[in-house]
TrEMBL record:
SUPFAM superfamilies: Mechanosensitive channel protein MscS (YggB), C-terminal domain, Mechanosensitive channel protein MscS (YggB), transmembrane region, Sm-like ribonucleoproteins. Its main location: membrane. This is Mechanosensitive ion channel. One of its GO terms (cellular component) is plasma membrane.
Length: 314
């Protein structure tokens, strides 16, 4: 459908160009009282031809190239590049059709560019930031990121702004808040950008469980590891393989854990068991909920070996 629509616009644009040439050659409106009616008509038809041909090429390329890319993120980037390039070509073409001074239009763009640089510093920086995002890909559509203390899922990367579906915000859990946040692309050049899943599509998260000092510590540790293995064992091992593959391609030398682990810390009047597991960055809270439910249920089955703190200072 997109290719047919683009082909139709292209054909109509070519007809408009032919009509513009005929008007210039035959001067059919020479007898009208309107001064330069033939010239105005020819210029209008030429501008219409440029607009339709450019739009037709855009729709055709969208149908031929973009629609065949299975990766939606790369398709999104290619669409934006086509919009920018063909938009600039169309703008120059329309102005050239009206002025008939193609070189002058290009020179004017350069002169005007110097004049507006100071007035449009932020939009220009945002456009440069967009080019950086497209080339270096610090994030793409679908990633969960934090940009200048704003966290969310990347929904759109336009020429000047990145639109995030906010996570967290006023919520205590790191889940979607239902709000959208528009972040200028210039912040990518001046602020830190945290991509929560770019390394190997997983992040570490912790599930803390508090218990009293009378608790059988090895038993609780082993029970938590058993639950983690049942829930995410295969996923963690697969993620660790991807992580090791990334490490092999980098100059870093790090010890890669083989699976989930439990860190134990002493607090004021209790012991904290912190189960450390790998989860998808967009499903961390759901994973913690599942682990909490299963771990607490299992611990409640062993009151002789597990007890919880009752201090009011908890």
């Amino acid at each position: 459908m997109s290719r047919r629509f683009g082909l139709g616009a292209f054909v109509i644009g070519m007809l408009a160009a032919v009509l513009a040439a005929l008007v210039r050659a035959t001067m059919p409106l020479a007898d009208l009282a309107v001064p330069d009616a033939d010239v105005l008509l020819a210029k209008g038809l030429s501008a219409l031809a440029v607009l339709l041909i450019t739009y037709g090429v855009y729709r055709f390329l969208m149908g031929v190239l973009v629609s065949r890319i299975s990766d939606r993120r790369r398709a999104h980037d290619l669409r934006n590049v086509l919009r920018l390039v063909l938009g600039l070509v169309g703008l120059v073409g329309i102005l050239g059709a009206f002025t008939e001074q193609w070189l002058g239009v290009l020179v004017s763009f350069g002169v005007i560019g110097f004049a507006v640089t100071f007035a449009l510093q932020q939009p220009i920086l945002s456009l440069i930031g967009w080019v950086y995002v497209v080339i270096k890909r610090p994030y793409v559509v679908g990633d969960r990121v934090t940009i200048a203390n704003v966290s969310g899922d990347v929904a759109e990367v336009d020429f000047l702004v990145t639109t995030l579906w906010e996570t967290g915000g006023g919520l205590t859990s790191n889940q979607p808040s239902g709000r959208t946040v528009t972040v200028p692309n210039s912040l990518v050049l001046s602020s830190e950008v945290v991509n929560h899943g770019a390394l190997f599509d997983r992040i570490w998260t912790e599930v803390p469980i508090q218990a009293s000092f009378e608790t059988d510590i090895p038993f609780v540790r082993d029970l938590m590891l058993e639950v983690a293995e049942d829930e995410f064992g295969d996923e963690i091992r697969a993620a660790m393989e991807r992580y090791q593959s990334r490490l092999d391609q980098s100059p870093l030398e790090l010890n890669v854990p083989s699976g989930a682990s439990v860190n134990i810390a002493q607090e004021e009047s209790w012991v904290v068991f912190k189960l450390r597991v790998l989860v998808p960055p967009t499903a961390a809270q759901r994973a913690r909920n599942r682990l909490y439910e299963r771990i607490l249920t299992r611990l409640a089955e062993h009151p002789d070996r597990v007890s919880f703190p009752v201090s009011r200072n908890r």
